[in-house]
């Protein structure tokens, strides 16, 4: 009896999170006439989710209820059960733990655990690696997540469209940002975007790398550099130059280098920036048309954060190479000096990434439109 009550509770919990499917079912069912059982016959009851056999229910007089009615009910119930379990699965991936997903969904942690166990049994694969302290997606779980998330989004979009709110921009938008972009887009432009969509919450996460956008629950990302092979959509926003800069205070103390080769050795204090992928400082390169020069600097200070590099340079601690996108306002204000404007041709592209062209939520589309317009002004 306790087990049956527990199963019923899990089914009730799962029904709370049939995001797109249930919404769409309610919309479609609103204009559909109710089916009543004929007098003297029994109605077809809810079928067990694992039973895919056609149902024929007999009345007290032996009259058979058409099998199509029972089959339709069975298919609807089965689909709702699967959709509910998938929604729980997606919530666990996004939240990172069963307990956090339960809190988001308004379920109990055991209810979430049972929903995942039933889904794993139905799919005949293990979706999560579980330890006492953490969970992580298995390879099969990651593939399943990447395949089903666009369909969940599609169901939600279809439900919104059917209810007349297809263009509604709301909810939480999570964006993975290159740290340089993090500073560049904050300000009046972002404020205007948020003012335009008062029901939208934005979470900007500064990261050194793109990572697994889908598995980590990001809606979009902005990264510098050429895109690698990926299932993500990559849209180029702009190219920005690499500039070599110093603060006036540094130049007044150490003098201004006249050519890139003047930076070799210990002649100047060069601030090194560590490449997060190689663990080594970026090489100092200079490009002018077809000419390419690499200078072996000997910096004593190495950092791995663009903000720290900028602050050290502004303080007069040394010469730095950085992206013009971040340095341009400071050069215009006279706080930094572009040392080699005649070497302008080392450039980095900036891309925006998102999971799918076909099932892009309205909030993501709105953000991409905003970023494209922002990039056009730089």
From TrEMBL:
Pfam families: HTH_1 (PF00126), LysR_substrate (PF03466). Residues 88-138 form the HTH lysR-type domain. InterPro entries: LysR-type_TF_proteobact-type (IPR058163), LysR_HTH_N (IPR000847), LysR_subst-bd (IPR005119), WH-like_DNA-bd_sf (IPR036388), WH_DNA-bd_sf (IPR036390). GO terms for molecular function: DNA binding; DNA-binding transcription factor activity. Keywords: DNA-binding, Transcription, Transcription regulation. Belongs to the LysR transcriptional regulatory family. This is LysR family transcriptional regulator. It comes from Paraburkholderia silvatlantica.
């Amino acid at each position: 009896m306790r087990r049956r009550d527990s199963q019923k509770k899990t089914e009730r919990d799962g029904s709370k999170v049939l995001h797109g499917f249930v919404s769409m079912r309610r919309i479609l069912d609103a204009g559909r006439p109710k089916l009543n059982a004929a007098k003297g016959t029994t109605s077809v009851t809810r079928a067990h989710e694992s039973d895919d056999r056609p149902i024929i229910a007999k009345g007290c007089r032996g009259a058979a209820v058409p099998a199509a009615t029972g089959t339709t009910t069975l298919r609807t119930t089965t689909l709702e059960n699967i959709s509910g379990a998938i929604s729980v699965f997606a919530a666990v991936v996004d939240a990172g733990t069963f307990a956090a997903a339960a809190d988001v969904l308004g379920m109990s942690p055991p209810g979430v655990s049972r929903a995942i166990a039933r889904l794993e049994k139905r799919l005949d694969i293990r979706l999560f690696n579980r330890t006492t302290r953490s969970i992580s997606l298995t390879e099969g779980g990651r593939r399943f997540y990447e395949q089903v998330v666009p369909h969940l989004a599609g169901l939600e979009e279809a439900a919104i469209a059917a209810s007349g709110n297809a263009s509604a921009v709301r909810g939480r938008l999570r964006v993975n940002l290159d740290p340089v972009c993090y500073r560049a887009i904050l300000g009046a432009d972002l404020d205007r975007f948020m003012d335009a969509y008062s029901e939208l919450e934005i979470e900007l996460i500064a990261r050194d790398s793109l990572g697994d956008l889908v598995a980590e629950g990001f809606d979009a990302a902005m990264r510098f550099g050429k895109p690698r092979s990926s299932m993500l959509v990559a849209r180029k926003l702009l190219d920005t130059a690499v500039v070599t800069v110093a603060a006036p205070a540094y130049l007044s103390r150490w003098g201004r280098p006249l050519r890139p080769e003047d930076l070799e050795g210990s002649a100047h204090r060069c601030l090194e920036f560590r490449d997060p992928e190689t663990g080594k400082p970026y090489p100092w390169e200079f490009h002018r048309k077809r000419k390419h020069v690499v200078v072996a600097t000997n910096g004593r200070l190495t950092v791995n954060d663009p903000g720290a590099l900028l602050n050290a340079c502004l303080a007069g601690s040394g010469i730095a190479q950085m992206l013009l996108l971040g340095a341009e306002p400071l050069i215009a204000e006279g706080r930094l000096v572009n040392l080699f404007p005649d070497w302008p041709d080392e450039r980095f592209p900036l891309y925006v990434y998102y999971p799918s062209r076909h099932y892009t939520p309205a909030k993501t589309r709105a953000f991409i439109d905003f970023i494209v317009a922002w990039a056009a002004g730089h």
